What we know:
Elements: E1 3-8, H1 11-22, E2 27-29, H2 35-43, H3 46-57, E3 62-67, H4 75-86, E4 90-95, E5 118-119, E6 122-123, E7 127-129, H5 136-157
Parallel strand pairs: 1-2, 1-3, 3-4, 4-7
Antiparallel strand pairs: 5-6
Amino acid sequence: MAKKCFLSFHYKPDNWRVSQVRNMGAIEEQPLLAANEWEEIEKKGDKAIEDWIEKHMKDKQCLVVLVGEKTAGRPWVKYEIKKAWKDGKGVVGIRIHGLKDAAGNQAKIGGDPFAGLTVDGGPIVGVVHDTPYSTSKYVYDHIKDNIDDWVDAAIKARK
C-alpha cells in the first residue's frame, strides 16, 4: 500500500525529475501544481503558501525531499522540513540529480537539506539517500526499488 507523502523540491529545475519519481507509484503524494498555479499562490503572499502547505501536508505520514542541485537552499523547502518535523512526520531525502531532465541532462549533486536545521532547539535528523549509479536508468531503478523502504524507515524513526 502506498504511503501518504508530501513531496518537497525545487520546482523549476527538478519538476521533470519529480514526475519520474511520482510515476513510480510507490508513494501517494499531494497534487502538484503547474508553474502558473504556483505563481498565483505566490502572488497572494507567504500566508497563502503556508496555508497551501498546511492543507496538503496535514494527512501525510512523511515528507520526502527530492534533492536536486539547489534544493537545500530553498526557503520553502526548509519551511516544509521544519513543519513536518514539528508535526512528528517522518522526513527523508532522496537525491534525484542523477535522473535526466526534459532536455536529457543530469545535474550536479546538491547539499543536504537537513544540515543545520533545528526545531525547538533540537536538530532535525533526516537521512538523505543517494544511489551508487550515474546512469539515469539505473538511478531510476535504484530509487524505485528502495523508496518504499526509505519512507517506511523515516516514518518508523519518528514513532
